[in-house]
Amino acid sequence: MRGLEILKERFYEYIQAPLKLLCYLLNKVNEVFRLKLDVYVIGSEISSSLDRYFLNASRYILLAVVMSIAIFLYIALANGISLPYSLSITIIFSFLFILPLSLALIIAVPRILYSNRGAIVDSKAIILLTAVAFLITSGQNIYNIFEDISRVLGKDYKYFSLEFDLVKSFVKVGIPLDEALRRVAEITPSKSISELLISLASISNIGGDVYSSIKMLLDRYIARYEISIGRAVEILNIYIEIYVALALLIPVLIGSISTLTIFHPAAGISFEYLMFLSSFILLPISTLVIIVLADVVVSRLKP
């Protein structure tokens, strides 16, 4: 057991250097290209901090590079290529293709999740705005709204917990409320939540009627939601047209090819195989893809 512990410690020591190098590389890419990944990482809830995300990402990158080297090295040796030549090819391939691809994924994933969370939170924002209006009419001040909102929202609080918990955390460490609200407004992926936080920050700083501001935000949200519904209907119509075209064209196309195979048989291709491909593979796959895409559109609008 002691030997295993020593081996484990040495292993962690050996991988610290490449992990630190990868973290440094990710930080430099973020700084040079001004990607603002800290906003996307925190706003998407993929990680609580950029440094922690880069550390975990570095581990996955290192694992991907090592596995790709091992796999391609095995394939090269199995095909009779000499070890030095195989090792050189696999290392070059891994660092020219696998490493850049991994970096691209590390940068793209937070952005995708950030956008997806923004759409989901925006679809639920009507619940939050209504709850805030209720607390305002009950006589709560702005900070007490953030303390009591979880009790009012119940299980729906999970959609907005990131923003509200961040505001409370900033205030607890001594940051003024209006500045805390503006900082979180820059992080949240939801336009509705950002407008709410900026509005509350302005009122906290210079004063104003909170209820009138919330009512204006509700009216703006409803107008924007109506536009989103119209766009979603247009997208669904396009998906339906694509599905109808595929449902009509695939059987005709496969049927025509199958008829040709009867008069001019091709090696390895039969009438039964083509009809099976059309009826049990292509059409179900196209149907499933359209259903998934339609569900994504609808789920982003569902309050």
Write a structural description.
By secondary structure, this protein is mainly alpha-helical. Helices cover 84% and strands 0% of the residues. It is built from ten helices and no strands. The longest helix has 55 residues, at 83-137. The chain has helices at 2-32, 37-43, 50-78, 83-137, 142-153, 161-172, 177-187, 191-206, 210-263, 271-299.
State the shape.
flat
Counted by DSSP, the helix tally is 10
* Unreliable residue runs: none
Strand content: under 5%
Average of pLDDT? 84
Overall number of domains: 3
Termini Cα gap: 55 Å
State the total count of DSSP E strands. Answer: 0
Overall helicity: over 70%
Name the helix and strand elements from N-terminus to C-terminus, one letter apiece.
HHHHHHHHHH
What structural class results from the helix and strand content?
A: mainly alpha
Radius of gyration: 28 Å
Main sheet: strands, sense, barrel = none
Topology:
Elements: H1 2-32, H2 37-43, H3 50-78, H4 83-137, H5 142-153, H6 161-172, H7 177-187, H8 191-206, H9 210-263, H10 271-299
Helix pairs in contact: 1-3, 2-4, 3-4, 4-5, 4-8, 4-9, 5-6, 6-7, 7-8, 8-9, 9-10
